[in-house]
Write a structure and sequence with these properties.
It is built from 13 helices and 22 strands. It is α+β, with helices and mostly antiparallel strands. It folds into three domains: about 5-75, Uridine Diphospho-n-acetylenolpyruvylglucosamine Reductase, domain 2 (2-Layer Sandwich), CATH 3.30.43.10; about 75-190, Uridine Diphospho-n-acetylenolpyruvylglucosamine Reductase, domain 3 (2-Layer Sandwich), CATH 3.30.465; about 195-375, Alpha-Beta Plaits. Bound molecules: flavin-adenine dinucleotide.
């Protein structure tokens, strides 16, 4: 049953993102239960000449949800719609969390190919921003999407798929809700697997020296550089793991994840090792105590870029203590993910959620700009149209498709208009 054309919009409510950094009060709020509710919300917004933006779980840093018009909240639109067991494809409502989807897949003998390091974001938010995990053979979540259904600016449903919609679908993969409001997505899953995880601390020099080998030897290798003794606590990294360093600062917290078929026996576990289903091992715990910026640099530039960031911290910002996270991601065929047609190495830099952090982020941004770094759309960045033009070969093509599908800019807000109109 739908909520009806007139009943779908209620007075807007104050919305905050997870970090407590972004807020807005829209004119109207819609909390849909059905696809028809979503369509009615868009039609009503059009009749009132109001813009529309959707939210998943609000885990992004920049103002990519804010709207003065109609806010469609998808946090209660989160069911599994359909499963194709033969193709291992699952169709879900956009608000389902990565964790709920991953746990559901486990019950039917499947896993997501890869996940990020939390699982409380919505699948649609993760796809729309190019959310990723780590691994040189593992692309971001936008690449796991094979089809989607959206409500466009004229209030009609549009079904798209990678198979039939070529360029349109490539442009849509990481498009921040600018093509329309997503009412379902279909993802490609893979056979269920367990993960054998190892964590240890080591000297930064050892980490970098063995980097290439560790990247090729493991399905997933990633590390957090810890500039200070207190750094690990800020990201709730575990104590008591094995350590090969005698230092307590300027060290690396290392992680490898290797997949084991679910029917294989569990390995014997040593210190710092864990073994469980992928849906259990991937997610970690974070507290909203940080402000993050993350860019992906070309793979070949990673080591020099990391060295510059480390040098900047140690010489110019010796009191900054948040971990710096480095994760490799495989290229995909999207127009606008940070990995669009280019393997990338994501470097995440964080500080306190205070104004005093901006100079550090600005200085790191200057390093990333010189290195051709592309932003994570769900984290802070300092992009301008001129920078995007240089970074994305298909930036102009993206803008053209966006204008064709939403000529009145119904699905833009100020932040996005400045970058993509
Ligand atoms: C603690 C923490 C850990 C994180 N870890 C990682 C990580 O490991 N890897 C990584 O890459 N990122 C990571 N992120 C970033 C996070 O994955 C992204 O910001 C993601 O977009 C958040 O999803 P969300 O559901 O909160 O989306 P939101 O922030 O609510 O929305 C994101 C975008 O999606 C759009 N959107 C959402 N739903 C719809 C819809 N139905 N229709 C149209 N548009 C829609 C929104 O309008 C917005 O533009 C992390 C964030 C946090 C806070």
């Amino acid at each position: 049953m739908t909520s009806g054309e007139s009943g779908i919009l209620e007075p807007g409510k104050l919305w905050w993102n997870w970090f407590g950094e972004q807020n807005f009060v829209p004119r109207y709020l819609a909390t849909p239960r059905t696809e028809e509710d979503v369509r009615q919300a868009v039609l009503k917004a059009r009749s009132l000449r109001l813009p529309v933006r959707a939210s998943g779980r609000g885990h992004s840093n920049p103002p990519i949800v804010a709207t003065p018009g109609v806010h469609i909240d998808f946090s209660r639109f989160c069911e599994v719609i359909d499963v194709d067991l033969e193709k291992r494809q699952v169709t879900v409502q956009p608000g389902i969390t990565v964790g709920d989807l991953s746990r559901y897949l486990r019950t039917i003998g499947m896993s997501l190919n890869n996940q990020g390091d939390i699982d409380t974001q919505s699948i649609c938010g993760a796809i729309a921003t190019g959310t990723h995990g780590a691994g040189i053979t593992l692309p971001c979540l936008s690449a796991q999407m094979v089809a989607a259904r959206i409500v466009t600016a004229d209030g009609s449903f549009l079904d798209m798929s990678a198979e039939k919609d070529g360029e349109l679908f490539r442009a849509f993969r990481a498009s921040l809700g600018m093509f329309g409001v997503v009412v379902s997505v279909t993802l490609q899953a893979i056979p269920s697997y367990n993960i054998h995880k190892r964590s240890w601390n080591t000297d930064t020099e050892d980490c970098i020296e063995g980097l290439q080998q560790r990247l090729t030897d493991n399905r997933t290798f990633w590390f957090f550089w810890l500039p200070q003794k207190t750094s690990a606590d800020l990201f709730v990294l575990p104590d008591g793991i094995p350590s090969t360093t005698s230092r307590d600062a300027d060290i690396c917290h290392m992680r490898t994840y290797n997949a084991v078929p679910v029917d294989d026996p569990a390995p014997e576990l040593g210190p710092g090792e864990e073994f469980d289903h992928s849906s259990v091992i991937f997610p970690n715990l974070y507290e909203p105590n940080f402000r993050e910026m993350e860019y992906a640099v070309p793979f070949a530039d990673y080591e020099e870029t990391f060295a510059e960031v480390r040098h900047l911290f140690l010489t110019q910002y010796p009191d900054e203590s948040y971990p710096v996270e480095s994760r490799p991601v495989k290229a995909d065929d999207s127009y606008l993910s940070a990995y669009a047609e280019r393997d990338g190495y994501a470097i995440g830099v964080s500080g306190k959620p205070e104004n005093s952090t901006w100079p550090l982020l600005r200085d790191v941004d200057a390093i990333f700009e010189r290195r051709g770094g592309r932003p994570h759309w769900g984290k802070h960045h300092f992009m301008t149209p001129a920078r995007l033009e240089k970074l994305y070969p298909r930036y102009d093509a993206f803008k053209k498709i966006r204008r064709e599908i939403d000529p009145d800019g119904v699905f833009l807000n100020d932040h996005l208009r400045g970058l993509f109109e």
